Each structure stands twice: as C-alpha cells, then as structure tokens.
Amino acid sequence: MGNGLVSLPPRNGRPLDPTNLTRRFRRLLHSAELRTICFHDLRHSTATLLLEQGVDLVVIKELLGHANIGVTAGVYTHVRLRLQREAMTALGNALDRP
C-alpha cells in the first residue's frame, strides 16, 4: 500500500505493468461493445456519478486522494454548474405550481 501500485498483483505476485493493464482494459471494453476510454477516465466517471448522487465534494476529494478541494472543485465544475441549473429549474417548477 502507498507505493502507487495496484493492490491486487497478478498471479506471479509482481506489480501490474501499466501497459498490460491498459491492454486488458481495452479488451474488456471491446468485448462488452463499449467505446474505448482511458483507464483513468474511470476516476472521472466515478467522481461525476458520486457528485450527481449528492455526495459531498469533500468526500469525493478524499476518495480521489486530492490534497486540495480546489482541485476537485475545479475539475468537476461543469457537473456542479449543471446540477445547480437543474436545482434552479426544479425550484422554478415548484414555484409555478398552483
């Protein structure tokens, strides 16, 4: 732990080679008939989904391992702005109801 390596080693007990991880990930995407994305994109997808589910930005920051919440907030500003617009639309709709 803490060495930057994936914690589940392959059968031979050695650290995973990033190239092999990428190759395996792409094969899985292809076999599932999904578009090709970078393995790192999973971090962004996870953070976006958590944010959209109402998870506090501080919790997401901690999960991602960001030292500064400004990094997390800056990277996911687009999601936060969209959620704010949706919230304001929902409020407007509620106020328009008789």
Structure description:
- This protein is mainly alpha-helical and 98 residues long.
- It contains five helices and no strands.
- Helix 3 crosses helix 4.
- The longest helix has 20 residues.
- The radius of gyration is 19 Å and the shape is elongated.
- The relative contact order is 0.07.
- The model has no long low-confidence stretch (mean pLDDT 83).
Please give the count of helices.
5
| Class of secondary structure makeup | mainly alpha
Low-pLDDT segments, ≥5 res:
none
The outline comes out as elongated
Order of helices and strands: HHHHH
Mean pLDDT: 83
Proportion of strand residues: under 5%
Residues in helices, as a percent range: 55-70%
Brief description of this entry?
This protein is mostly helical and 98 residues long. Helices cover 62% and strands 0% of the residues. It has helices at residues 18-31, 41-52, 57-64, 69-75, 77-96.
